[in-house]
Amino acid sequence: MKKILYLPLDERPCNYNFPQILASATEYEMIEPPRDILGNKKLPADTAKIRKWLLESVRDVSGAIISVDMLVYGGIVPSRLHGYSISDCIDRLSILKELKGLNPNLKIFAFNLIMRCPQYSSADEEPDYYEDYGREIFRTGYINHRIALGKADRNEIEELKGIKDKLPDSILKDYTDRRNVNREVNRRAIDYVKKDIIDFLVIPQDDSSPYGFTAIDQQYVRKYISQNRLNLKIYMYPGADEVGCTLLARMINEDKAVRPLVYTRFSGTKGPFVNPLFEDRILFESIKYQIICAGGILCSSLPEADIILMVNTPGETMGEALSYAGGSGIYDVEKNIPEFIEYMDYVVNTVKKPCVVADTAYANGADLELIEMMRQKKLLYKLAAYAGWNTSSNTLGTCISQGMLYKIYGNSKKHLDFLALRYVEDAGYCSFVRQLVTKEKLPSMGYNYFKVDGKRGKVSHMVKAELEKFVGDRLEYDNYSININDCYMPWNRMFEVGLEVQLVQEGK
User: Fold this and answer.
1) Which of 248, 194, 184 is nearest to 221 (CA)?
2) What CA–CA distances, in Å, run from 185 to 156, 161, 318, 374, 415?
3) How far apart are CA 17 and CA 23, in angstroms?
4) Helix pair 86-93, 169-194: axis angle to 10 deg
5) Among the four residues 58, 132, 224, 312, which has the most C-beta atoms within 10 Å?
C-alpha cells in the first residue's frame, strides 16, 4: 500500500478527518500527525513537534500534502494572530527542502492561504481588536483599494476620513505588518515551486472580496506567479477547508495516470453566473478551477463524461441557508429543482454514470427541499458524492474529490458513510439543528452561538438528539438507517460540529 503524508490546515474535522475518510476508501494509506500537537483554534500547533513528525514520517511515503499555514504559523487561525518575523517563517518553510533531501522521489503538493479580511467586527477567529475595529479595518483596505483604482465615490472618501479618526494607527500597523509577513511567505512558497521543491501549489482565498487587503495581496501574488511563468503549477481560487480533499484526489489521479472528464449540469440558467457569498468571482469560474485542481477536465456533453457534476445553484443571488430554510418565493423562481432531480435520476438509474451533487444554492448549508426530493426519488445513497456546506468552494472541492475517487474505486462502506456524514452535517446540522439549538436552547442555558459548554458538554448531547430526530424524519427510508456514533463541538461554538456517522443497510 502506498502512503501519503498529510499535514492539515487545522485540527477541525473538515481538515483533519474528511481527507482521511476519503483515503480510507482507496488503496492509499494517509499518514497524519497526532491531533494533540495541532493546537486548538487560536492556540497554535507545536511547530517543533510537527517538524520532528515530518522528518520521522517522510522516508517511506510516495507523496505529501502540506498546509503551509500549519507548517509555518501553526494553523489557519494562528496565521491571522502571530507575531513571527519573516526569518522565523522562512526557517519553518525550509523543512520542505529537508523532506526532499530525505526522500528525493517525494512529490509535494502544498497549499498556502492568502490571509482573509472579514467585513464584520468579531474577534472569534481574528485578533482581539477585531471585535471593536474589524469593520473599520476591512473598509480601510476596501476604500483605499478603490481609490487606487479610481473607483471610489465621494461618500467612500468621506467614510475613510471618519475611519481614520476612529481606528488607532498602532492597530492598523499590527494588522498590515502581519499581512506583509504572510504575503512574503506566499512569495517564498512560489519560489519553492520554481526550484521544484514544491511540485504543485494551491493558493486559496478564504472569504475573499473583489476589493480590499485580500484582493491587493491576491494581485501581488498573481503577478509574481506570472513573472515566474508558473501559472500551470500554481492555482489561485476561492477556498480553504476543502483543499486537503482536492489535493488528495489530484495526487491519486496523477499516480494512477487518469484524468476524468466532468460534465456540469445546473439547476438554474442564471446560476453559473451568480457571484457566491464570500467569494470574488462567478460560480462557474470556481467550478473550472476545482475540477482541474482535483485532476479532471471539464467536458461539454453527457456521453463523453466520466463524471456528471450536478450543481444546485442560487436563482440570481446567494443567501444564507438558514434565511431560506424550506424555500422562499422569488429565490426559487429562477431555477427548476424538479427538472434537476429528474435529470439526476436519469444519470443515476438510466445512464448509470457517477453522479456528483454540489449543493451551492445557499451559503453555510444545504437546500432542504433538494434533499427531500432526492429522498423521494431514493437517490440519496446512490450518488458518487454530495456536499452542501460553508462556502460554494468548500462544497465543490469536497464533492468533486469524493466523486473522482468513487470513479476509480466504486461503491464501498467508507464511501456510503461519508455520504451519510454529508447529509447529517450539511443538511441536518448546518441548515436545521444549528439554528434550532442556537435560538431555542442556548439562551436559557446562558450560552450563545460563539460559546457553548465545551466540546462534549450538554450542548453537544442536545445537538446529537436533535440530529437523530432529523435523520429519522428526513434521511432514512427503505432499508437505510444512520447511526450517529459521536457528536462534539470542535471549537466550543455552534458554527461547526464534529460527527462520526455510519450508514446501515438492513440485510447487508
Assistant:
1) 184
2) 32, 32, 33, 45, 36
3) 10
4) 30
5) 312
